[in-house]
């Protein structure tokens, strides 16, 4: 999957691959269809569901026919990493796919497609949270049986909702030295989807990583799941607060106020009010 030539021997317009991981329905398909409209040559979509679920969308939808061969997935297990690798592997088969973003059924875009596309295609870094946390939920999940291949000082944690360039996507799909350690020793209380890619990138590709997520999420309420937002929560002010939350982050080593391109976790009831805000707030 890695080109041996400096330039592709054919015209190649780089695309962004949107990887949706869901158990079943995608309630925000109408919102995403509006987001994708008019940009067919610049994106690809891949959907991983439970094996017995068939995605039911109109023929005119960008999601039509975009399910990939899937396997059973359970929360907190290595099967989540398997699903991520399965999505990446399918997306890598299209040589035009240059950037790869993982999303769930509760994710929404908070900017229009041209803004998201330019942000990703022109980025010098990938976007994966990877941090050292000296708590029971961080270092406490490390198993000494992973040594010496993975040491405690190399162990990292982060959100599973990544964004990768093609080089890192190839490396993660091809990686077979450290994945078996996670499969064997990172059991459900370890949550391998929060540690496998962050640890691997920290060990070998830290310079290529912006070390932050592009997906906004609210953990302020505590617990093992983030806050969930429905119709009553969707206002102009709320979406604007996600788009510009008053903080700055680095983009290509320069400070920027655009830190999040996507947001979660939204309930299906949020669809109609979100559709009412797309043209006035999100620009699509």
From TrEMBL:
Keywords: Glycoprotein, Glycosyltransferase, Membrane, Transferase. The keyword Iron-sulfur does not apply. The keyword Ion transport does not apply. It is found in: Membrane. It holds the Pfam family Branch. One of its GO terms (cellular component) is membrane. This is Uncharacterized protein.
């Amino acid at each position: 999957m890695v080109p041996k030539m400096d330039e592709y021997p054919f015209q190649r317009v780089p695309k962004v691959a949107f990887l949706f991981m869901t158990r079943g329905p995608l309630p925000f398909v109408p919102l995403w269809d509006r987001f994708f409209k008019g940009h067919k040559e610049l994106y690809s979509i891949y959907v991983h569901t439970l094996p017995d679920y068939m995605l039911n969308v109109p023929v005119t939808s960008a999601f039509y026919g975009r399910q990939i061969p899937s396997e059973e997935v359970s929360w907190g297990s290595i099967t989540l990493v398997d699903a991520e690798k399965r999505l990446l592997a399918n997306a890598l088969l299209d040589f035009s796919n240059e950037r790869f973003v993982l999303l769930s059924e509760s994710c929404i875009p908070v900017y229009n497609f041209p803004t998201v596309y330019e942000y990703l295609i022109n980025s010098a870094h990938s976007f994966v949270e990877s941090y050292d946390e000296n708590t029971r939920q961080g270092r406490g999940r490390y198993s000494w049986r992973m040594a010496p291949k993975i040491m405690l000082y190399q162990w990292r944690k982060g959100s599973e909702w990544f964004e990768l360039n093609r080089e890192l996507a190839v490396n993660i799909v091809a990686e077979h030295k450290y994945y078996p350690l996670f499969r064997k020793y990172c059991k459900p209380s370890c949550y391998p989807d929060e540690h496998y890619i962050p640890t691997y990138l920290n060990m070998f590709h830290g310079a290529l990583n912006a070390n932050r997520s592009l997906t906004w999420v609210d953990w302020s309420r505590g617990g093992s799941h983030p806050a969930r937002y429905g119709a009553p929560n969707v206002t102009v002010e709320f979406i604007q607060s996600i788009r510009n939350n008053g903080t700055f982050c680095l983009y290509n080593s320069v400070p920027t106020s655009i830190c999040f391109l996507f947001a979660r976790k939204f309930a299906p009831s949020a669809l109609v009010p979100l559709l009412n805000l797309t043209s006035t707030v999100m620009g699509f």
